[in-house]
Write a structure and sequence with these properties.
Elements: E1 11-16, E2 21-27, H1 32-46, E3 52-59, H2 64-75, E4 82-84, H3 89-97, E5 106-107, H4 110-118
Parallel strand pairs: 2-3, 3-4, 4-5
Antiparallel strand pairs: 1-2
Helix pairs in contact: 1-2
């Protein structure tokens, strides 16, 4: 999906499964407008009262700004989103060097996250 100016949206898909709310990201969200879209998608997911799952498979470069956006729900007293990959080596490395890898639930696939959510 292209925005004004021809740049692709960082949000490839927002959808609701039976037990999870899914946000599929793409590219390398880093500017304020792109991160605002990510924030809005996470907020929308929060209000479904389902676990929010962010699919990072098509994220080209996991920026520090994106990490901050994914941590922002905790600052509002909400649960952190679950992450789905498989995560790239650079994404996993950024989570490890920032000490945040343990803060997120990480799954290899959306169906795996859905099954986990059903069993909560």
């Amino acid at each position: 999906m292209n925005r004004a100016g021809g740049r692709a949206s960082p949000i490839a898909l927002v959808t609701e499964w039976s037990s999870i709310f899914v946000v599929v990201l793409q590219g390398a969200p880093e500017d304020a407008e792109e991160l605002e879209l990510v924030d809005l998608a996470l907020e929308l997911g929060h209000f479904t009262r389902k676990p929010v799952v962010v699919d990072l498979y098509d994220v080209g470069f996991f920026t520090a700004e994106l990490l901050c956006a994914l941590l922002r729900p905790a600052r509002q007293g909400w649960d952190l989103p679950w992450l789905v990959g498989p995560l790239s080596a650079t994404t996993r490395h950024r989570l490890e060097i920032t000490g945040t890898v343990g803060a997120f639930s990480v799954f290899d696939s959306l169906p795996e996250a859905e099954i986990y959510a059903r069993n909560l």
